[in-house]
Amino acid sequence: MSVTVRVPAKVNVQLAVGAARPDGFHDLANVFLAVGLYDEVTVTESDELRVTCAGPDAGQVPLDRTNLAARAALALARRRGIDPAVHLHIAKDIPVAGGMAGGSADGAGALLACNALWQAGASRAELLSICAELGSDVPFSLVGGAALGTGRGERLRALEVGGTFHWVFALAEGGLSTPAVYREFDRLNEGVRVPEPVASEDLLAALAKGDAEALAATLSNDLEPAALSLRPSLADTLEAGRAAGALAGLVSGSGPTTAFLVRDAEAAAKVADALLASGTCRAARITESPAPGATVV
Ligand code: ATP
Fold this sequence. Notes:
This protein has 297 residues and is an alpha+beta fold. The chain has helices at residues 68-80, 102-117, 124-134, 138-143, 178-188, 201-209, 212-218, 224-230, 234-243, 265-278, and strands at 2-20, 26-45, 50-54, 86-91, 146-150, 155-158, 165-171, 220-221, 248-251, 258-262, 283-289, 295-296.
């Protein structure tokens, strides 16, 4: 018996970051949009818990119990008193440590797959609460579509999306550690009064209308200066995409992937070609949003 779940990557169309809290976390106003790049997690009965991974970035994925897919399986097994003897295989297409929530996707995917394989009967609400324990971005990977995350980003409100948005993602060499990017954010903002993070009404309206130009005008990522400070070459990638006619470009989450919103499929092909020709990224991926959340296939 085995179950396969497909889970999307995300881009943050707005990532407003508040000051560091006493516990070290930051309050966020985080507008997530699921995009059509997917990992697939297959869970099969086995004699012990093990993780394998295939894909271009597979070598960077931990295969021990720190893997978010393994942690998700263990969390559900513990709650239900089930022996977590399963083989978790991740077919990885989402860049690793790329700011696209690939690990979170695998956590949500493994949770949904194990719930089905074990017929554990966890409700949507219970799955979401396990996701929130696993990490701030994991609940969104389960639900997909578009959502506003507040708190650490894990309290979600579904958002309306009135059309299809076209994107090009420029994949960078190597990853950026999310905690390191937040540390750099704190360093850059030392002595600065960081405003409360608030979702942009104009951005939410642009999403609801499916208006790419209006969305382009309102995209924002407060982590971008920190990501650029740690990886100055990303400025060249952003410049190459904008020069090729993207409506807007921004760092995706904590980076180093950069995201370019484009008008249509034709513009996407042009921007992707220009990004590759510029030599400022290792690959360019064309995709659309919104994408559905974790789905059994
Ligand atoms: P986010 O956008 O949520 O900040 P990210 O996309 O930048 O995350 P991930 O691909 O989730 O980053 O990986 C971050 C780190 O998490 C990796 O360097 C790796 O050590 C660890 N990790 C744990 N489980 C996984 C997994 N299933 N896939 C990828 N990385 C994982």
